[in-house]
Amino acid sequence: MGWNRVAVVGAGIIKFGELFEKSAEEMIEEAYLACLMGVDKGIQPKEIEAAWLGTCRPGLHGYQTVGGVSLVGAIGLAGIPCTHVENGCPTGSDAFRNAVLGVASGVYDVALCLGYEKMRDNTTQGLLGLAAQGHPVLQRGETAMTMFAPQAVRHMHEFGTTKEQMAMVAVKNHYNGTLDPYSHYQNLVTVEDVLKSPPVCYPLNLLDCCPQTDGAAAVILCRSDIAHKYTDKPVYVAGFGMGTDVPYVHEKEKLTEFVATVRAVKQAYSMSGLTPSDIDVVECHDCFTITEILNIEDLGFCEKGEGGRMVERGETQIEGRLPVNPSGGLLTKGHPLGASGIAQMVELYWQLREDVPSQDPRRQVELRKGNALQHNVGGRGISNSVVTILSRNA
Amino acid sequence: MKASILGYGTYLPRYRIPREEIARAWGGKGRGENAVAWVNEDIITMAIEAAHNALTHSGVRPDEIGAIYLGTESSPFIELSTIGVIGAALGLRPDIDVVDFGASTRAATAALKTATDAVCAGRIHKALVIGSDSRQPSPGGELEQGFGAGAAALVIGEGPGVAQIYGSFTYATSFRDTWRATSEPHVRLFEPRYSREYGYAKHVTEAVQGLLSEMGATIPDYHHLVLYQPDERASRGVARSLGATPAQVEAADLFPQVGDAGAALVFLSLAAVLDVAGEGERVLACSYGSGASDAFAFTVTGKGKAAAMTLDAYLKSKDYLDYTTLLKLRGLLKDPSPPAKMGLPPMSPLISREMSELLRPLGAKCRRCGYVNFPPSERRICIRCGDTSFDTVLLPRRGQIHTFCINFYLPAGFDESPLPVIIADLEDGTRHRALGTEMKTEDVKVDREVELVVRRLATEDSVNLYGNVFRFLRQAA
To answer: What is the pLDDT of residue B476?
Structure first.
């Protein structure tokens, strides 16, 4: 495929959480500065030629701040091209994909990609209210939960997946979150805690769901042939893909998978020449516990229907056959929509360089082939997905 | 006269309030129960289901209907016809006679008189006449013990049909006993005894005797007497003084099970009688409302086609409410937070464009691959195969749950919580998504049978938005 290779040479993230004391601009600035500081050999702001901003609901904190200028304006880079990407839950990873395309095209040598979401300045009721703005009849009563919970019911019905197996995803990701200093939640939970947490949307309980979190994360990308100017340990973009699906749930053929994910990962494997067995670590879209189970099937890590049992066998634990969401994932680290995809890139950048910022050595996954897979799925009708494969191999 | 009832259909809400439960809140005693409109029901949704049943029973196609006359005293609107939504949901033609009758519990018999005249004059061939009411009493008042809800519809046309209409008589004076000003939410009553004797008894008696005298008939000529029932006893007293036997009024005695369903009640009681009456039997019916009565004479001529749901089935499939829930249904006990705004208000052009296809509902069946696209106006290119030629099809209303969820955590403005979201495969294999209604959480299961019914989905800027929701099939408990 004719594209100029792209490398990630810097990554930065802020502590995710309920950041009532911080403005959106402060979050952006902090992630940007952390990212600049994260470039091993240093970088000057003026070296950044273009920027991409991922934010999904830019009016959440009270007024509309749509458009790329809200990024460059906040970080003193007004003047350079900046594009705002909004694409549902894959907003951050789609902004990354577009930044990659910008560099891969040869037009830009160095680009910034930053994602943020200020979720917590709004009330939970306010966020739910946004869901009331879909099609007034066809999507009446839809919230984020109602777009994933029916898949859980059908998966349980067809494949015997259990609520206990779903709870084990939360238990694992909470454990991982306690190792990650940037994670919103920092506590352990048990299967019983999850099962006994209040029902939110049957069959999902409170601890099956990600929290409402503020966050921001950023990466710097460049042409891979100049990556060593910035670091001796660049991480390369081995492949990526984006898949879409029909937007209404009644139009979907199967309610036990997200076919957008299947389509996205097929492109990413084909582009990178890699297969599921080449992947050492995964950061995937675990907005709900059931989503992670569907994802590991849709991404090709087990047969359809086996996801729950793969979790139960411990294969997705940080020391397992395929560590999934070592950062704690959306369930524990949090899901600030536009930031989530970029935060996954940040995590995988560190994992592939074997320099995760933690005192606890258990946080680092074991690398075998040096490849990692990032994934988001969401958007209207859970009908778009972005997959990125990163590699330490040039 | 040559107009006949070609078919009839009824609807009663699933929920009943025992009158004892009202007495528990306010004192006194109560016997029997009232049918109560559920939180997403109103006279429009009840009228739609009754009219569906009437069309099925008559065998008349929606496009044959030349007039729709609806009588109610509890329309949600002073200005805004209720009939547009009903016509769209039933698939009636736009070039038909459309009239809202209101302001009285005799509104439906007034509508029947108009339909009969129009058919007899040869101006209309087939008319749909609907009575629908969800009566709103003030809490603690005298009327609360008796107010009910329901709907009934008649298809009127040239006979023979189910029953021939061969006489009518109206008696109206300036008498006033119950009223509701446009600014008031609840019906008021001046004095019960005065109302019963000088209002109800006098007007019903005059109308019935007027009709008998005009027809040269007497009470014993009729097998059944169907009298409007404002309470438990009034109709029995009038029947007795007219010389009727208890056997003549027995079949029409719905008040103990339904309550005063206003404009719907005489049609509901007539349906109860027609369900049991034999061919050749004669029926005399009389309404009452605020100083006026319409009396009609019928002769039973046939049985009609089998209806999906009979009055008996609606009477038997029921659940009971407590008084607190009743207050919530009536909007008297509510969460004060403003409802979450929809993306579009109910009067938006999008809703007008899609109203008919969403309510009936209609699909666009791809001529190449057979996939039924929904809604048709949003899928001009088949979402499965990309073809562009379609046949419009009516989606079946029944299906089985494919999957579902039950949402315990909703934005403000949803009346049912927890709220099921149901994804079902309809009888033709089309997958359909709609909210669930009247479902207990533990009863919702994959593969369970459900059916689509029209309900109020939301209210914004005082305007209602209607759409289909799934409910379990109504079956006798």
So the answer is: 66
Domain A6-123+210-391 has CATH 3.40.47.10: yes
**From the candidates A35, A56, A82, A89, which is the catalytic residue?**
A89
Cα separation, A317 vs B283, whole angstroms:
78
Residues with Cβ within 8 Å of A203's Cβ and at least 6 positions away in sequence, in order, are: A149, A152, A153, A156, A163, A166, A290, B405
CATH of domain B354-360+396-477: 2.40.50.840
Beta-carbon separation of B409 and A151 below 8 A:
no
The CA–CA distances, whole Å, from B32 to A126, B20, B65, B287, B387 equal 44, 8, 38, 22, 59
Using the predicted structure, report yes or no on whether residue A40 has a pLDDT greater than 60: yes
Handedness of CA B468, B472, B473, B476 (dihedral sign): negative
CA dist., res. A59 & res. A66, Å (int): 7
Q: Does B421 touch chain A (CB under 8 A)?
A: yes
CATH T-level topology, domain B3-329:
Peroxisomal Thiolase; Chain A, domain 1 (3.40.47)
Place of tokens 């209404």: A248
What are residue A216's DSSP bridge partners?
A116
Q: What is the CA radius of gyration of chain A?
A: 19
Instruction: Write out pLDDT tens, residues B66-83.
Output: 999 999 999 988 888 889
Q: How confident is the model at residue A124 (pLDDT cuts 50, 70, 90)?
A: confident
Task: Give me the residue spans of the domains in chain A.
Answer: 6-123+210-391
Q: Which residues of B touch A135 (CB under 8 A)?
A: 343
CA dist., res. B110 & res. B87, Å (int): 20
Closest residue to B409, CB basis, from A200, A203, A248: A200
- The structural domains of chain B, with segments of one domain joined by +, span 3-329, 354-360+396-477, 361-394
> Is A35 known to be catalytic?
no
**8 A C-beta contact, residue B432 and residue B374:** yes
Neighbours of A349 (CB within 10 A): 26
pTM above 0.90, yes or no: yes
Rounded-to-5 percentages of helix, strand, coil across chain B: 30, 30, 40
B337 close to A (CB below 8 A): yes
Q: Can you say how many angstroms the Cα of residue A292 is from the centroid of all Cα atoms in its chain? A: 12
Q: Which residue of B has its CA nearest to A198?
A: B408
Decide if A335 is catalytic: yes
Both structure tokens of B344 = 């579009």
Least Cα distance to B46 among B74, B24, B67 occurs for: B74
